Each structure stands twice: as C-alpha cells, then as structure tokens.
C-alpha cells in the first residue's frame, strides 16, 4: 500500500554528549495521528507491515485470503473489505495518513425519495443504502435522497456537523512524545521534570532538531 505525501513536523530534543534523543515535541496533528493508530483495522495493519515483520499467524491469514481463488469467495466485495478495510465513518477518519485517501473518505448513505412527501411512507424510513438509486423495498421508488450523517459526542448525544473539529485532542498546547509513544501535555514544569528524569546537568549539551515524519518513517 502506498501512503500519501503528508508529513508531520516533530521537534526532537537531543543530548549531544550521548547522541541520544530525549523526547519529541509535537502538535495536535502528531498526537491525533498517534492516537488514530488505535482505530486501524487489523487487516490494514497487516497490509502495511512488511512480510518479514508480521507477528504470529496473522500474516499467514492475510496471505491465504490474497491467494484464495475467487471460486471460493462469495463476492469480491467481501474479499476486498477484509484486504482493504476502511476506517469507520467518523469525523476522525482522516487523521491517519497510513491509509490511502480512498479508504477513509466519508461514506454517503441514501434513503427513499418518498420520505420527502407527506404520504404514508413511514416504512421507507427504515432503510438506508450506500449505493444511490437502489430500489426501495417498501414502495419500489429510487433511494436517491442523501441521508445526513450524525457525529457521536462523548455525552451520548449527536451533532449534524462536527463543530468540535477533526481529530482527538485540542490544539491549545504542544505534547511530549517519548520513544515508547507515551504522550503527555507539555508545560514548563513538565519539561524540567523530564530533564531531571534524564539527569541532564548541562543545558548546553542539548540540541533541538525538527524532523519530518511521513509514511515511510512510520512503517519502519
């Protein structure tokens, strides 16, 4: 799978005396990406990994499905849904650039056009589909009216438009990123605490370097 050309800026604090990266500092985009790794379907992770990097038998499962003749598959669509899984249709779906753009576009759903009228077509509202123009099971009319997707909120309610913005965290601060991907909000006090943790006595030995993180860097 080829990723896109999107790059994230990550600021590194390096101890020159030991040539060691102490920690990284990233903005909302970096942290949104890290947290979005939790939403990746297993099939997508398996496809992204190099063959020799696959852990356990999951790589064998993926390869078996790839090589299985279409004679034994119910439909190519079902096979593709496993080999090229999509992220759920949410406001956060575009925070992970490991998936190609086509795999995380918001889906469109359609309902019967008779729901626009004041006739007794109540049962028509019970059905939605992903393909425009499908025949309604209730009235045989075309399902070509686009349904409005509601974005879930943490309190259990929903909104028609995601006014909170995309992603997972707020952009009001920067965040520290450790080599084990531990993430925490940055502050003056937390920075001092981290320097003390690494037993840094000479601040002159510290160097700041900004690096770009993209598809190739992430999958290595």
From TrEMBL:
Domain of life, source organism:
Eukaryota
Name of the molecule in the record: Uncharacterized protein
Tell me the organism: Rhynchospora pubera
Task: Output the InterPro entries linked to this UniProt entry.
Answer: DUF674
Q: Name one Pfam family in it.
A: DUF674
């Amino acid at each position: 799978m080829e990723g896109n050309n999107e790059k994230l800026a990550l600021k590194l604090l390096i101890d020159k005396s030991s040539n060691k990266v102490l920690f990284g500092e990233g903005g909302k985009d970096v942290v949104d990406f890290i947290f979005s790794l939790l939403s990746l379907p297993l099939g997508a992770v398996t496809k992204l990994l190099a063959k020799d990097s696959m852990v356990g038998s999951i790589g064998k499962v993926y390869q078996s499905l790839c090589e299985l003749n279409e004679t034994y598959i119910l439909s190519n669509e079902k096979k593709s849904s496993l080999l090229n899984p999509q992220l759920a249709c949410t406001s956060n779906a575009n925070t992970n650039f490991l998936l190609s753009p086509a795999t995380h576009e918001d889906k469109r759903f359609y309902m019967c056009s008779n729901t626009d009228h004041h006739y007794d077509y109540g049962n028509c509202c019970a059905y939605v589909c992903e393909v425009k123009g499908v025949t309604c099971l209730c009235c045989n009319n075309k399902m070509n009216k686009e349904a409005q997707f509601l974005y879930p909120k943490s309190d259990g309610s929903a909104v028609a438009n995601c006014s909170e913005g995309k992603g997972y965290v707020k952009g009001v601060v920067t965040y520290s990123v450790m080599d084990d991907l531990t993430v925490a909000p940055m502050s003056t006090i937390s920075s001092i605490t981290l320097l003390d943790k690494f037993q840094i006595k000479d601040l002159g030995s510290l160097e700041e370097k900004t690096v770009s993180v993209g598809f190739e860097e992430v999958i290595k």
